[in-house]
Amino acid sequence: IKELFDKYANHPQDNQPGKIGPNGVSRLLDDLRLDAEDRKVLILAYKMGAQIMCEFSWDEWRKGMRDLKADSVKSLRSRLDKIDAGPKDSSQFKPLYQFAFTYGKNAGQRNLELSTALVYWKILFKDQFPLLPQWEEFMQTRSGKAVTKDTWNLLFDFATSIKPDLSDYDENGAWPVTLDDFVKWARTR
Amino acid sequence: NQRKANATIDEIWQDLEAGLQHIYRKEPMIPQRYMQLYTYVYDFCTAVSTHAGQGIPQQQQKNLIRGNNNNKKSANMQNETDFVGQELYNKLTNFIKNHVESILKESKTRTGVDQLRYFTTQWDQFTFCSRVVDGIFAYLNRHWIKRELENGNNNIYVIYTLALVTWKQTLREHMATSIVGGVLDLIEQERQGIAITSSLVKGVVDCLVELGIDEVVDSNNAAESTKAVNPKLRVYKKLFEDKFILATEAFYVCEAAAFLQGNPVPEYMKKAESRLNEEKFRCETYLHRSSLQPLERKCEEVLITAQLELFQTEFCVLLENDRDEDLGRMYSLCERVEGGLDELRKAMEAHVQKQGLNALEKVKEQANTDPKTFVLTLLEVHNRYSKLVEVHFKNEAGFVQALDKAATVFINKNCITHAEGSNAVSSSKCPDMLARYCDGLLRKSAKNSEDSEMEELLNQVMIIFKYLEDKDIFQRFYTKKFAHRLVGSLSASDEAEQSMIGKLKQMCGFEYTSKMQRMFTDTGLSRETSEKFSEKCSNSGKALGCNFNVMVLGANSWPSLGSSVPLNLPYTMSTCVSEFTSYYNEMHQGRKLTWIFSHSKGEVVASCFSKRYAFVAMTPQMAILLLFNSCTEMDGKTMLEGLQIKKEHAIPQLASLVKAEILQVKEGDVANLDETTKIALNLKFTNKKMKVDLTKFVARSEVKQEQQEVHQHVEENRKMVIQAAIVRIMKTRKTMAHSLLMTECINQLNSRFKPKVQMVKKCIDILIEKEYLARVDGQKDTYEYLA
Question: Do the record's keywords include rRNA processing (chain B) (predicted)?
Answer without folding.
Answer: no
